[in-house]
Specification:
This protein is of the alpha+beta class. It is built from 2 helices and 9 strands. It has a single domain, classed as DNA Polymerase III, subunit A, domain 2 (DNA Polymerase III, Chain A, domain 2, Roll). Helix 1 packs antiparallel against helix 2. The model has no long low-confidence stretch (mean pLDDT 88).
Length: 117
């Protein structure tokens, strides 16, 4: 991903649901071309921007779109990408979060940042 950082917003409740689905899956699918990171949620940008489980077999409802970046989104440009982030990182970010909070993810070509807002 090149250029301006991308900001994505997700409901923490949706992230929790994906973590649970991924933990409960019988196995997981390794990410192509990277070291095995174990069970992950994958940040994807192709037809929209979303996070998905790498659980295997693939759980139902394993995709959550970022606010404003659904599959029909026309204002998202740039290269497609997929970044696998281990569950332990997601769990650490949302640990102790209560209520209807939002997870903000900031991505650029060098790093991924997480913030609860």
């Amino acid at each position: 991903m090149k250029g301006t950082p991308m900001l994505l917003l997700f409901k923490v409740a949706d992230v929790r649901r994906l973590i649970k689905l991924t933990r409960e899956a019988k196995g997981y699918t390794k990410s192509y071309g990277v070291d095995d990171k174990g069970r992950c949620l994958i940040i994807v940008k192709d037809e929209g921007a979303y996070i998905m489980s790498n659980g295997n077999p693939r759980p139902k409802d394993d995709v959550v779109y970022a606010d404003g970046y659904g599959p029909d989104c026309e204002h998202i440009g740039g290269d497609d990408f997929a970044d696998s982030v281990p569950l332990r990182i997601w769990e650490g970010v949302i640990k102790g979060v209560r209520g209807t909070k939002t997870l903000k993810i900031k991505l650029d070509e060098k790093e991924i940042g997480f913030e609860i807002i």
